[in-house]
Automatic annotation (TrEMBL):
<comment type="function">
    <text>Catalyzes the formation of N(7)-methylguanine at position 46 (m7G46) in tRNA.</text>
</comment>
<comment type="pathway">
    <text>tRNA modification; N(7)-methylguanine-tRNA biosynthesis.</text>
</comment>
<feature type="binding site">
    <location>
        <position position="190"/>
    </location>
    <ligand>
        <name>substrate</name>
    </ligand>
</feature>
<feature type="binding site">
    <location>
        <position position="79"/>
    </location>
    <ligand>
        <name>S-adenosyl-L-methionine</name>
    </ligand>
</feature>
<feature type="binding site">
    <location>
        <position position="154"/>
    </location>
    <ligand>
        <name>S-adenosyl-L-methionine</name>
    </ligand>
</feature>
<dbReference type="GO" id="GO:0043527">
    <property type="term" value="C:tRNA methyltransferase complex"/>
</dbReference>
<dbReference type="InterPro" id="IPR055361">
    <property type="entry name" value="tRNA_methyltr_TrmB_bact"/>
</dbReference>
<protein>
    <recommendedName>
        <fullName>tRNA (guanine-N(7)-)-methyltransferase</fullName>
        <ecNumber>2.1.1.33</ecNumber>
    </recommendedName>
</protein>
<feature type="binding site">
    <location>
        <position position="104"/>
    </location>
    <ligand>
        <name>S-adenosyl-L-methionine</name>
    </ligand>
</feature>
<keyword id="KW-0949">S-adenosyl-L-methionine</keyword>
<keyword id="KW-0489">Methyltransferase</keyword>
<feature type="binding site">
    <location>
        <position position="131"/>
    </location>
    <ligand>
        <name>S-adenosyl-L-methionine</name>
    </ligand>
</feature>
<dbReference type="InterPro" id="IPR003358">
    <property type="entry name" value="tRNA_(Gua-N-7)_MeTrfase_Trmb"/>
</dbReference>
<feature type="binding site">
    <location>
        <position position="158"/>
    </location>
    <ligand>
        <name>substrate</name>
    </ligand>
</feature>
<dbReference type="GO" id="GO:0008176">
    <property type="term" value="F:tRNA (guanine(46)-N7)-methyltransferase activity"/>
</dbReference>
<feature type="binding site">
    <location>
        <begin position="224"/>
        <end position="227"/>
    </location>
    <ligand>
        <name>substrate</name>
    </ligand>
</feature>
<comment type="similarity">
    <text>Belongs to the class I-like SAM-binding methyltransferase superfamily. TrmB family.</text>
</comment>
């Protein structure tokens, strides 16, 4: 049987690195176009994050000031795992009065996003090559977000890998910390078993209200290549949402 990314994870993990993360660092080679976009606009759009021990960590004491980062004060939407940036660039183009921050640990994905940004001519996006966990724990200020979006997080479908899933009870306090009261947490997945887990997590999430059922497809979410692949395989796309309580 061919080796999968998840199998490789078990072998490739750096020996000193004990904490469980929701991603694998896949090949970091940029295509010529990606490198060109990176050289051209990364300085403008990619946040220079001081690191701790690893290349996706955040140095202790570093916090981001969104109004300084974007050069204005506007509602801020965060997308975790922005991938190739299809949703992020679409949203930024449709909503010029809102600022969008994408967190993505896959550097070629970030470079691909830069190609999209350049092409669309949008300015209201910033990207950070950073693990969402330290970003939500300490890099972002409390209650700075209008919305937090998690589109198609890695499903980690094998039971022994479920511990790597991002959307768990332990993740809830991190989201609660950064979302403003009244703000929205949106999710989508094509993996039914993960959708069921998300529904349970949201249903018991302290400080959030949710319908207890699937949400309507979010109108601001375009069909990404990732979603199209899931649909082609006959999977049902599930949207979910929860609102941060005001009191
Ligand atoms: C399955 S892909 C989906 C990408 C995109 N949202 C889409 O719909 O096309 C999940 C992405 O999340 C990123 N990711 C996983 N865990 C992450 C984390 N802790 N912080 C930031 N990005 C993460 C992965 O690198 C990957 O690009």
């Amino acid at each position: 049987m061919p080796e999968t990314a998840e199998d490789r994870t078990d072998r490739d993990e750096e020996p000193f690195r004990r904490e469980i993360v929701s991603f694998t660092r896949r090949g970091g080679r940029l295509s010529e176009r990606q490198q060109d976009a990176w050289d051209d606009v990364a300085e403008r759009f990619v946040v220079d994050v001081p690191r701790g021990r690893t290349s996706t960590s955040v140095a202790e004491g570093f916090t981001l000031d969104p109004s300084e980062l974007f050069g204005r004060s506007a509602p801020l939407v965060l997308e975790i795992g922005s991938g190739r940036g299809e949703s992020l660039v679409h949203a930024a183009r449709e909503n010029p009065g809102t600022d969008f921050l994408g967190l993505e640990v896959y550097v070629p994905g970030v470079a691909q996003t830069l190609i999209g940004l350049r092409h669309a001519g949008v300015e209201n996006v910033r990207l950070a090559v950073v693990d969402a966990v330290p970003a939500l724990t300490r890099m972002l200020p409390e209650q700075c977000l209008e919305e937090l979006r998690v589109w198609f997080p890695d499903p980690w479908h094998k039971t022994r890998h479920h511990k790597r899933r991002m959307v768990t009870d332990d993740f809830v306090p991190l989201v609660r910390r950064v979302l403003r009261p009244g703000g929205t947490w949106r999710l989508a997945t094509d993996w039914q078993d993960y959708a069921d887990q998300m529904l349970e997590v949201l249903g018991r999430a302290e400080g959030f209200t949710t319908s207890g059922d699937w949400a309507e497809r979010f109108a601001g979410r375009p069909v990404t290549r990732f979603e199209a692949k899931g649909t082609a395989k006959g999977r049902t796309i599930r949207d979910l949402s929860a609102t941060r309580m005001t009191a």
